[in-house]
Write a structure and sequence with these properties.
By secondary structure, the chain is mainly alpha-helical. It is built from five helices and no strands. The chain is globular, with a radius of gyration of 16 Å.
């Protein structure tokens, strides 16, 4: 049963558009930030740090996959670096404040990419 589920997940990811994959990464980052907030509030700092590190890896991945031929890429890279800085501060201060500072921005970006993907799909049809 587990093998069938793994096959389904793999097929699902392999058939996603770039926009859908991007939204999925944002969803995972948001999920990790919310989990980190709960862990910090419960003083489970080790697991909070693990969750924040996974979130930072997502933003690092987004940075390295940017296409430098677009001016927007520089702005996005700076924003992702800012997110990572805030996540490092949250980890070092053991405080949710830095996560709360960026969570609305990450959610807005996620929604923007989702809308852009919808527009792109409808333009193709």
């Amino acid at each position: 049963m587990l093998n069938a589920f793994e096959q389904y997940k793999r097929t699902s990811v392999n058939t996603m558009t770039k926009g859908e994959l991007l939204v999925l990464l944002y969803d995972e980052a948001i999920k990790k930030m919310n989990l980190s907030k709960i862990l910090i509030e419960n003083k489970d700092y080790d697991n909070a740090n693990i969750s924040l590190e996974k979130c930072r890896k997502i933003f690092n991945h987004l940075i390295v996959t940017l296409d430098d031929k677009y001016p927007l890429s520089k702005d996005l890279a700076e924003m992702y670096m800012f997110f990572n800085k805030e996540l490092i501060m949250a980890s070092s201060k053991k405080s949710v404040q830095n996560i709360d500072n960026i969570l609305p921005l990450v959610k807005d970006l996620r929604n923007t990419w989702e809308e852009a993907d919808k527009i792109s799909k409808s333009a193709k049809n």
